[in-house]
Specification:
By secondary structure, this protein is mainly alpha-helical. The protein has two domains: 1-102; 104-168, no CATH class. It contains four helices and no strands. The model has no long low-confidence stretch (mean pLDDT 77).
């Protein structure tokens, strides 16, 4: 960026030097031969106008380009912020739905997707997933044992009632 500015500054200073030299030539020619001076003077005036126009256009075009780049940068920044906000709201909605439904496996899978950028978090999530799998297995086993206990309790109740009938 600095190199471009330096090149532009040096180009502009060269143009300004040329303008200064042409003005000096015009001043010198004004005191010389009127016939050749008129032709040279007209030619130098035209050249001087062109150089002054080039200097003015250079700065105007650079200013215009700079403003256009700044507007584009602002627009892209706004688009980026909107995308970030949309992503954040999508994450929050997803979390709420997962929490409301109580779907732990989906919640863990969702966290895995979000944590792909961080390997250490991903390892922790894998351990959580394994722990949850063991917890579900233990829960299933406990539910089966509870069912067995209920069957035995029911049987003992029936058998106890029959024994009481027989003894009475």
């Amino acid at each position: 960026m600095k190199a471009v500015k330096n090149e532009e500054a040096s180009a502009i200073s060269r143009l300004n030097d040329e303008i200064r030299m042409l003005k000096e030539k015009l001043a010198q020619n004004a005191s010389g031969n009127s016939e050749t001076t008129g032709v040279l003077s007209e030619k130098n005036k035209q050249q001087l106008k062109e150089l002054e126009e080039a200097v003015r256009n250079t700065w105007e075009s650079k200013t215009k380009m700079s403003e256009e780049h700044e507007q584009e940068r602002r627009r892209l920044l706004q688009v980026q912020q909107q995308a970030a906000q949309q992503l954040q709201s999508t994450k929050e909605r997803s979390w709420l739905l997962l929490e409301q439904k109580g779907l732990v496996e989906l919640t863990i899978a969702h966290v895995k997707e979000l944590a792909k950028l961080s390997p250490s978090v991903s390892v922790d999530i894998d351990r959580w997933s394994e722990s949850i799998g063991r917890i579900y297995a233990l829960e299933k086993s406990a539910a089966e044992q509870y069912t067995v206990i209920q069957v035995f309790r029911s049987s003992i109740d029936k058998d106890g009632k029959q024994i009481v009938k027989v003894l009475l």
